[in-house]
Amino acid sequence: MSAIGISNENISGSDLFSDLSVLERKWRAALKPGRLLPPFEDVTLGGLGRIADNMALLKGQGGDIEILRAGREVDAWLESEVQHTPLAMLPPDCALTLAEACASAQHNQKPYLATAHCVRHGKVQAYDVLALPMASRWGDVLTSIYVHTRGLDFDLLDAVFCATDDGVLSLAAIRDAEGHPVDFQIVHLNQGAARLLRLPSDELRWLRLSAGTHLLSFTNVLAQLAEATGAAANVQIEVEGDGFTLKLNVAPVGDMLSVILTDITDLKRRERSFRLLFDANPMPMWVFDAQTKNFLNVNDAAIRHYGYDRATFLGMNLLDIWPEDERQAHASVLDEVGDIYQSTHNWRHMKADGSKIEVLTFGRRVPFEGKDGFLVTAVDITERRRAEARIAYMAHHDNLTGLPNRVKFREHLDQALERSDGSDERIGVLCIDLDMFKNVNDSFGHPVGDRLLKMVAERLHAVIPADSLVARLGGDEFAMIVKRNPMPRDLNDLSAILIADVSAPYAVDGLELVIGASVGIAMSPGDGVTGDDLLRNADMALYRAKSEGGGAHCFFEQEMDRQAQTRRALEFDLRHALANGEFELHYQPLVDVAANRIVAFESLIRWRHPERGMVSPAEFIPVAEDIGLIVTLGEWVLREACTEAAKWPADIKVAVNLSPIQFRSRNLVQTVIAALAHSGLAPTRLELEITESLFLAETEANLAMLHQLRSLGVRISMDDFGTGYSSLSYLRSFPFDKIKIDRSFVRDLAEREDCVAIVKAISGLGQSLNISTTAEGVETEDQLERLRAMGCTEVQGFLFSAAKPGVDIAGLLDRFGQGRTKAKGAAAAA
Fold it and tell me: How many C-beta atoms surround the C-beta of residue 684 within 10 A?
């Protein structure tokens, strides 16, 4: 793996939902007034959620940088576990990327986004590398790094490059903190390049030009390469060394330079010694009459290359080797040429067999046998041009399926919109996502998945209308542009056809595979007049189609955009709610059925929005989980609930719900210990409620944390018991203190016998395993009596009380005659 390019990107334009945007806003939110950098703790501790796997923490600056810790995705990028590892121990390409990102972030004192291009087994992969500079109380220079794979890889066409006798180099630009190219790194070369630079390939690869001893190390060459990178234009550079001369044809490709090295030493010598060297020159050469354009002499190389015998060649005119469609252009250039000529672009020449080749020509006016002659050398670049065309094709096409990629799709869409600007002509955009494709990859492996994607691409290509385009955007995502003013019914019918075609069975390696497809549709100009708008709205429609079960198509509606804006507004407000003190805890009593007394209160978070009023937890908790705030919010709930419960009678417990995401942070046990220590609450008075989804991933690690919590004396309860697939099996995995019967079973006790049977079974199971059972959602006396008869231990619900603020706890205890207990408990505490 090797870095082949780093370039500045614009972070501020990132989509509100992206990890990059989340991290940038988190950094800016942590920046205190008057401070140059935010504290390390405020940026990296808590709240990263799933992004943590893509994060690494680096210490130091300059040549003394060390990775303190790294997430799994960073380890995968570096192909090893890198905790406490100096950058010098990493592969040089990765080390260069990280060092420059850190240097730029620290120099500019703000987040810095770079793109690293890495080579894996001949494939180029792009990575987003975001560096976040931070202050440290210990005085160390700290940088948090986020690494994420972007887009698809592509082939470097080593085989094509190696087939040419010319030297082929790929150079990655190395930029300073201001983003200016100051040096270049050799990331790829063929044997021809090693031969021309007179150094072994292994010594040249990954070498900075400025650190070398070859012709490309000259200061003037570096300056011209940097100028070509900035101008993004093809240039030709001539370099003279110790007895030889090289011609550099430089073509910028993104943040890289494709360099073709041609040795023109012999050409230069032949210009000085024409009679001596003309005939032996391996390059095709001839002399023509500057007035008549007739050939006066040709060398053996020209005869061999063009296929004419000498007599025929000498009886020809320049017009005879020029294609008819270029003759006027050739003639115009010759009329204006001076004493020295060098073609500024490629020409086509005709060979004896009628084939065409692409050439660069170099010429000098010379006297020849008493005539005004012109000596010409032709360099055949046909194979090189084919290689360049292949590279250009790959830059705009998906390497796996051959379909246009996202770049080509956007170019095509923008051009179509530009042509339709100012008219009522409609353009349809379809976003297509495969249903159940992940199951194929997980079950049969990626090679089978790749072959399936190729077959899907063939089916999609077969159904596209004329003058339309289908592209693969990445993964199992495809998109289609439909022009020629389609009507909604046309797009409706097309979507139905492609869903049916994609959903038909596939035969792959003896397997019969069945997947499906969902389609989101947007149309210009009603759904947007820019490519960004149409893609975003088609994607919203696709999300709606997927949420309705897949296998369907859905047109964009303005309501979808409204919902997306509402979601973005909710995210923005949610990020500031905790700091603004807008959250509060309410408590619902859990009543012992036999003693008819309150034994615990379940803490339930409430959000009192200054404008919206009370926001339902069902609305904001999933959002908090998505944007990585649930861990921080969970820590606040634990601390507040324990602090409030410490004021209650000593025999009253408090129950706190935990999100599975809190377990991923791996500091949950320490958070619970800190909350208990801060409040003084006895661990036996804290109940932690979890759901079955906790066991769906990293079961061993989560079980280990549950055992640690239980060893503290904390009670563990399984919430919503009976609603999952494997609830019974989890009772064998961990000795729960309590199971809570879901309210859906309690609600229908009077109407459905199956609910009665389930509640009886759970109650009996609890008695057999010596586990308490709590029934949720009790609203009527009839439900209470039925639950009492079935042996349920505890109940909670509106029959006793809705969730109340902490100030109402004393009143609830008085209602159940526990006020004296409270006083007694308070006295004991005193």
Answer: 11
